[in-house]
């Protein structure tokens, strides 16, 4: 039988640490300010079944690809321009804020969809991990949802995100 040396006592770091990552993420979510032009998605007259609509699956796929592309760009730019702080900071922040915008639009569009489906507001707040869902549901998110669900915009010219939503939905047909 093999014997093992005594386990060493666990050393505790004397360095003060901040909150663990999940708590830190919640702090970030709580610090998001409500949008100035927050929207509420009007409920649809009929509730859909338990199946996830193809449009939502396509929406997540579309934006996930874009987010991944921008995050990859931030990574590659970081290694290409590591010798020039001026170029590095400019290009990395462009890529990261583009990824953030796609993520915000994706979350807002799904939240607007769930509002239209009459999801309990407390449940929506819990899913968004935010006391204020209006942080995510912007005018652009509602327009994006209108395009996905083939709603007709009231504006004389179709908004950009309505068009993008329509294009995502048309790829399913």
Describe, in short, the structure shown:
This protein is mainly α. Helices cover 57% and strands 0% of the residues. The radius of gyration is 22 Å and the shape is globular.
How many beta-strand elements? 0
The amount of helix comes to 55-70%
Approximate shape: globular
Instruction: Output the helix-strand order.
Output: HHHHHH
Provide the low-confidence segments as ranges.
none
Structural class: mainly alpha
The average pLDDT is 81
Oligomeric state of this protein: single chain
How many distinct helices? 6
The fraction of residues assigned to DSSP E strands is under 5%
Note the main sheet.
none
C-alpha Rg (nearest Å): 22 Å
- Note the gap between the termini: 67 Å
What does this structure look like?
- This protein has 173 residues and is mainly alpha-helical.
- It is built from six helices and no strands.
- The radius of gyration is 22 Å and the shape is globular.
- It starts with 20 loop residues before the first helix and ends with a helix.
